[in-house]
Design goal:
alpha/beta; Rossmann fold; three-stranded parallel β-sheet; 11 strands; 41% helix; globular
């Protein structure tokens, strides 16, 4: 058996086409969607490269991009001050933070400082809490992207046995909550889980989100299972060059029925989900502005 690959890049292209239409509609109504991103550190960081690419992607779909600079040696209070300014600015409706942050600046504290209504990544405690309670679909982008890829296969999740390898607060746990909203039976595992191979082999849907290269091996996978690889790990290849690999061993493709690979799977869709959130934030702002006139 050779797994059918889930083409996240193609799905993301279609998502971006829809996002561009919505962004154009917002602009026609007087508000161009804009992503305000915060970055800290020197010019040659991977985050800086990602920010440059992000600006280009935003431009292609009609989203403005504003990058706000913090010193690589800034204090936590400096970082808080910038987020507070963005929260209070009526022209800002979507905020995200590029990582890593300088030493002494808590990632969790700074992310929690973002106004939940302007949270482009869906990572504030309020938004994650709403997902856990089933009150919102604004989940962290990677979790939402994983569900989009699962949905693209047409699988009915009700009653399906889903196992998640990895229980991180912005990936593994939100994915579990989203799957439970679909009436799936969910098992979340972590590094202390006993007999994990026995659990993963029961999964109709197996999601690898531990951040460990090649952690999920073929013997851990039920034949014909749907496998979503969320891992993004930079490792040294045989030729000495750095390459990106997932948490799923390539041999899993000989056992699984459908597989979301790395690269080309969850990653492109995660970017599309972020862009969609930016447009949704703009649409929400337009609705709020129109509400007094309609009243």
């Amino acid at each position: 058996m050779t797994a059918t690959l889930i083409d996240g890049a193609a799905l993301a292209r279609e998502a971006r086409r829809q996002i561009a239409k919505r962004a154009a509609d917002c602009t026609a109504r007087g508000l161009t969607p804009r992503l305000d991103a915060v970055i800290a550190g020197a010019e040659d960081t991977p985050a800086r490269v990602y920010a440059t690419r992000q600006a280009q992607t935003c431009s292609r779909v009609g989203i403005d991009y504003a990058l706000h600079e913090l010193s690589g040696h800034c204090s936590e209070q400096d970082a808080f001050g910038l987020i507070d300014e963005l929260n209070e600015d009526p022209d800002v409706h979507a905020i995200m933070i590029h990582l890593p942050l300088p030493e002494g600046v808590s990632t969790e504290s700074l992310q929690a400082r973002i106004d939940p209504a302007k949270d482009a990544e869906g990572i504030t405690p309020t938004n994650i809490g709403n997902v856990l309670y089933g009150r919102s679909e604004l989940a962290p982008c990677t979790a939402a992207a994983s569900l989009r890829l699962i949905d693209s296969t047409g699988i009915d999740l009700a009653g399906k046995h889903c196992v998640i390898v990895g229980a991180g607060p912005v990936v593994g746990r939100p994915i579990a909550a989203l799957l439970m909203q679909r009436q799936a039976t969910v098992i979340s595992t972590n590094k202390h889980t006993r007999d994990i191979n026995d659990l993963t082999r029961t999964a109709d849907v197996l999601i690898a989100a531990a951040g460990v290269p090649g952690l999920v091996t073929p013997d851990m996978v039920k034949p014909g299972a749907l496998v979503i690889d969320v891992g993004v790990n930079r490792v040294e290849g045989p030729d000495g060059q750095t390459v990106t690999v997932g948490d799923v061993d390539p041999g899993v493709a000989e056992v699984a029925g459908r597989l979301s690979p790395v690269p080309g799977g969850v990653g492109p869709m995660t970017v599309a989900v972020l862009l969609g959130n930016v447009v949704e934030d703009a649409e929400r702002t337009l609705r709020a502005r129109a509400a007094p006139a309609e009243a």
